[in-house]
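Protocol step 4 of 6: record predicted structures for both targets in the notebook before any analysis. Target 1:
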Amino acid sequence: MPIKEDTLIIGGGVIGVCAAYFLAEQGRSVTLVEKNDLSSGSSYGNAGLIAIDHAIPMPAPGVLSQGLRWMLDSSGPFYIKPRLDPDLIRWLWRFRGACKSETVLRAIPILLNFGQASLDLYDQLHTRYVLDDGYHRKGRVFLYRTQAGLDHGAEDVDLLHEFGVTGHVLDAAAVREKFPIVLPSVIGGIYYENYAHFVPDRFVRELARVAETLGARIRTGTEVLGFETSGKRISKVNTTRGDFEADEVVLAAGVWSAPIARPLGLRLPIQAAKGYSITAKRPPDYPELPVQLADDMVAVTPMAEFLRFSSTLEMSGLDMSINQRRLAASREAMRTYLPGTETLEELEIWRGFRPMTPDDFPMIGRSSSFQNLTLATGHSMAGMTQGPITGKLVAQIIAGDTPDIDLAPFRPERFS
């Protein structure tokens, strides 16, 4: 017999777990299914940043011309592997259309509002529950080795000031006052106040634990195989652990949302962007402050007893191979900003896929094709930042409540 639920969530990363929590908080019967373990995808090895202030979307004027140089270098910060893939070609065409000044200016206040709503929820969750995830709100410093890089960063500060963001340009002395352990190569920096950080997979597991205390059921090792439909409704979800009947279905499977949705006739414009991270043992004197090695696009985040270096964007399809040149480039960048990195005890090398949309906005809302399907996917590199507010919005959509955030910019059908 099929298992019957009010709501079935597909995906056990930060988005799916946040949705499970807020739905369970409403008192709904909710089951989350995940084909692997919780937080086994990009919610595991990412930079652990809740990034609010630097709300400039990835598609922006000049990105394509700069990207052409990077794309020719497989060790560069943004690499697109050449391949004849119609979905990638369509994605790049839409990305090109988003690289306009007026589009960026419209996007910034939307992203700031969306991110701040999520940060407020993070604060509420950590006040309400004891979550063992190393949560801190210390801001973030962008470090620069070149004057050109610092000048470009200062231009971002001037732009963001117009939208109420407080960014502080730091000279060499001020950088060392804020973050004393940099090498002489660092000539300046920028400090943004509105950043938080934590151990990302620990947050996901901790919130899943809370959701279970509220009645949610978490079923790992349960892979979605297909769907059965009746008119404009999903009647059954077929999985490796049996069939589920649900009044509501939420698709929150990150990069895997596109192949899962395809049998339903939905073509989600999501491209897999592979990212890498190196997790090392944290030196005892390392400050509790995330930094960005800005000229080389490497994030450095203290995470409890760990130190994580996260970098690169590699669009090469669903290819899980490890490009050693990219890791070598990250290690070289680390050595040019921070002392002692060559002697760090490396604990883990990770790679995973970010679900990139062409405009850098997630897809959140009811499907126009199926009345009981809600999409919550395509969060690009901001899944951890946007997780709680997305989960709350999903719960509001399903309850028929007025959403806290205007969902128009995130409509799944905007690419049609």
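Target 2:
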Amino acid sequence: MKVLLMYRDRDFDLRQELPWNESALTQDLELGTLLRAMAGNDEFLFDVARQALFSGLRNDIDTILYRQEIVKDCLKNGAAVRELYDLATEALEKKRKEWLGVFSHYPGGILSDAIKLLQMFMGMLRRVREIARRQAGRFESEGFTALGAMIERELSDEYFARVHNHLAELKFRKGILLSAELGERNEGVNYVLRLACKKRPNWLKQLLGERPPGYTFRLHERDEAGARILGGIQDRGINGVANALAQSADHVRGFFDMLRTELAFYVGCLNLYERLASKGEPMCFPRPLPAGEHRRRFRGLYDPCLSLLMEQSVVGNTMEADGKDLVIITGANQGGKSVFLRSVGLAQMMMQSGMFVAAKSFEAERCMGLFTHYKREEDATMKHGKLDEELARMSDMADHLTPNSLVLFNESFAATNEREGSEIARQIVCALLERGVTVYFVTHHYDFAHSLFERKTDQALFLRAERRDDGTRTFRLVEGEPLETSYGEDLYREIFPVDTGN
């Protein structure tokens, strides 16, 4: 039984390797805040959401759209989705607590444990079918429709009756019928479990009828050695059946495990959506575009992590960058530049994992890799200077970059003087653009930004943190040429407040 809620044709692999820069992306985009909002207090939800976000960078457009439709279904039927998730979790918790994850080492014990486990799972599967039947017609996505059809097809009344009868027979209440052959030194070999006679003759036929030739013997109740030998014969006879039944139990457990895993991603989406919706924040389902089209436009894009940490709503930004593969962001400190950069990276990851995006509208090309290069604190060990450390991280990134990747720079190469930092940044950015990499760069290096403004106007978009004449920041970015001023007057006023009283 396949769940297939994450992909049309395969299961979701929770143990797949994370990207090499997982730690940097988590730190720079503050993914921990987003993941905790998705998970609540459920560590399993946290792990699944993290894996889905990072592995989503490899998703194709078909997979993205497939998941989007399932997320829409979940938003309309949240209670049913949570009920299914809780049921799968309950089944696995019962298995873990009552069987401790292992079976006996002996065929008889394996068979007994498998029977009890399957009986418990059958009860849980009946509840799964009840939910599916109760919710039939309410789900419209391809994924949930296929799951409902599979449940109805596989978990029929005939299936449950057949399993019940098999489990009843395997308890061997009327004894075990085995056949064997004689091997070397007249030792028993080729033990085979036989199906017992379905109907026994009535007592009169048993009394008067002719019995088949055969020999019987009874063990003395104190014959421990004989009991061990007979038990060994019995184990050899039922060994194949015990292993087959254990595999069947493991197959059903695998269904619940995958149901829980794949539903966990959508429960996480529900949790995040409800948190943001409670604040009245806008959300939309993005339009993914093929990689290499160099198209990205959005309205009201904001940082969901910042919103989750604030009581008030967050200011969003609007941008149209079709045909642009370089975006330079300049302006005064505390103007929203870093928040904007983070919102772009989070939106890209959320879109490619199949989620909604924190914006009024959003469309963007798929990126084949997402990278961040943010400034770091000084090396506490003093083994490396800040510039050396930045260049080393850039070198590591270059080893993993591919065309159609997206790189977010935040005040990179600012650990040296204006002239040297600008030249390093300019050479790196030009090399990346030549390789087909899209670049977003927040910088205070006027020389770097202005030189690109003069040379790359057709290829680049220049944004500036908006600042009113009185120094008030709106936390919005507007198109504009880089300005040479560093807004030293703002810093002066912050340190030495001006008394405006008479």
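Step 5 preliminary note on target 2. The chain has 16 helices and twelve strands. The mean pLDDT is 84.
Proceed to step 6 after PI sign-off.
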